[in-house]
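Lecture 7 notes: from sequence to structure.

We start with a single chain of 141 residues. Read the sequence below before looking at the structure.
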Amino acid sequence: MASDRPGACESAADFEGGPAGDIRLEHGDPHELIARLEARIDELAEIMERCRKIMLASKVAIGCGGAWMLAAVFGAVGLDPLAMVAAIAAVIGGTVVFGSNTTTAKQIAAAMREAEQRRSALIGGLELRVVGDQAAPQSER
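Now the structure, written as tokens:
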């Protein structure tokens, strides 16, 4: 599911199968299922971090492209056609990448919430014992 491109954020289609991927809660050892859900949550958190970095880079591209266009319009820099085209491309490209990664980040966040809810439901369904300081049974004298 992870992208082969370093630093790339996965596409929205990668999350359509649900946050647990192939994890089925109906069958299997609950401890194994919990461990698999936790691994999936960690994987989604890493993907979310990559999306945040890409969104930051797109904001920088938008800002730099916009600043260059303003500087060219007000005469602070020379009006070079190639530089102006590059600035326009940076603004448009940054906007597209930012929007795409924002949508993907929302889908990843929803997948993480669902996986965390499933993990909590599994943990809540376990019959756990409280381990604490219990006085040892005293033998009769």
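The first helix runs from residue 30 to 73. Keep this in mind for problem set 3.
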